[in-house]
């Protein structure tokens, strides 16, 4: 074996970055424990150890921000405001772009939807001109976070084609028809991991007088984003998917719509002056950040952005590509397993490809049952359901749900092997335990495993949303 091939084969043997919990022990239904394999990064990623260490540094200084004269408050204010600059650099923001910290990606997109609503009502133009016939355009493959906020506004949807090329053509046809003020698209599918050509989509939107917002909840933890280079007007993503705890989100983009839009929350910090019957709102990020902000969440999001920005892009993508290719090859080699994808040309088209997400189903088994089995009998955590993308799952013929394995900088090749071995064992010998449905979820019957002493529930009894709503 040549040294180049040997080196490539070693890329995914170890995590690219150490993460908290990478050696967590998970109890098995038949007794004993095993190293927990976390293949659910796309839902919430574990914290990178460097981010967790930074939390320990910042936590003693945690205090209210912006108006405190005390030393801790001043330090916290500095950390919070500097986080905006770090995040702006991370996404290649233009000079003057606004960085607003939110609760999560969903909150960011709802905030922008409120501003677009003001625009359509005539409050988003400097001259007060109405754009009452304007519409928002989005794809049918979107996560609910980038679909539901627009349904309350004039809108049109585009059914994605079987290729990216066909999808771009359909988007352009709708844009050419006129009246679109905003194109809302995902950067990478949270269901299949396929990446959309956001720069091409941005150029199409601008060519027809529209702006673009990219839901980068899945893209940002896997690929670098550059608003200025790619012509993206707005981007939204979340810290909890970016290897940062506390769940802060962020919206970055052009300030005019944001400054003219109705404040996202009415409360202290978003105002210039308040009277008993009136208020003068401020501009800039504070306009939409009323109340006490998630200081630690913003700080950890920014630290995670710094850590990812320091990665070598080639090594980062090579690590994910090899892991994903290895997992897909292993699953596709099993009779009865189908790996699901949207586009025929995602692998070959420049600027596209895939991130660390693989969607699959196992013939003859409910997705929720497979997920429960993998966890209880193999210590492997995957996601099952419809992934807050119901229209897309129906398109794929998976209305009852499927399985999703997702990974990132803390993943290793052994994780993929453990999943493939678990599915192979299921297909070869069936379930090794009895399972039942409790509160809408498959769980092992007669489960005697327990959570840590500080966690209130035992496995199989914790409340969970039914599969049909995932």
Automatic annotation (TrEMBL):
<comment type="similarity">
    <text>Belongs to the class-V pyridoxal-phosphate-dependent aminotransferase family. Csd subfamily.</text>
</comment>
<dbReference type="Pfam" id="PF00266">
    <property type="entry name" value="Aminotran_5"/>
</dbReference>
<dbReference type="GO" id="GO:0031071">
    <property type="term" value="F:cysteine desulfurase activity"/>
</dbReference>
<feature type="compositionally biased region" description="Low complexity">
    <location>
        <begin position="455"/>
        <end position="470"/>
    </location>
</feature>
<protein>
    <submittedName>
        <fullName>Cysteine desulfurase</fullName>
    </submittedName>
</protein>
<dbReference type="InterPro" id="IPR015424">
    <property type="entry name" value="PyrdxlP-dep_Trfase"/>
</dbReference>
<feature type="domain" description="Aminotransferase class V">
    <location>
        <begin position="37"/>
        <end position="419"/>
    </location>
</feature>
<dbReference type="InterPro" id="IPR000192">
    <property type="entry name" value="Aminotrans_V_dom"/>
</dbReference>
<feature type="region of interest" description="Disordered">
    <location>
        <begin position="448"/>
        <end position="470"/>
    </location>
</feature>
<dbReference type="InterPro" id="IPR020578">
    <property type="entry name" value="Aminotrans_V_PyrdxlP_BS"/>
</dbReference>
<dbReference type="InterPro" id="IPR015421">
    <property type="entry name" value="PyrdxlP-dep_Trfase_major"/>
</dbReference>
<keyword id="KW-0663">Pyridoxal phosphate</keyword>
<dbReference type="InterPro" id="IPR015422">
    <property type="entry name" value="PyrdxlP-dep_Trfase_small"/>
</dbReference>
